[in-house]
Amino acid sequence: MHVCAIAGLGTPRARKRPRILIVEDDIDSWNLIQCAVREAIPDARIQWASDSASARLALESCRFDAVLADYMLEDESNGWNVLTECRRLQPDARVGMTSAMPIRPPHDEKPCPFLRKPFAITSCADFMRRLLD
What we know:
Rossmann fold; alpha/beta
């Protein structure tokens, strides 16, 4: 049995609510993304990981409908590592990337939707809606 750190998963209604993993090490960006997700998908269950190790643990513990990862993480990994693990562990999850710098996927990686920082809550909310469509 997998244990998930998202509160409220024991109720039948909660299982139908989208689960989103946000991998972001900057608290201001995290707060902005959280507000945008709440605006776009009010009943979403959000889990936060601040580095690739905690993201991998979350991916091994819970099923997610979507994963949004920042490209630059403090632990010397990057968002592509997180998204590669997500695609391996949870191939049905939608994945997206965010960064302040322009990025290209490594030559052996599939591209994914990209949200350029800085962004407003409304543009991030629109991005999350499209990601989960």
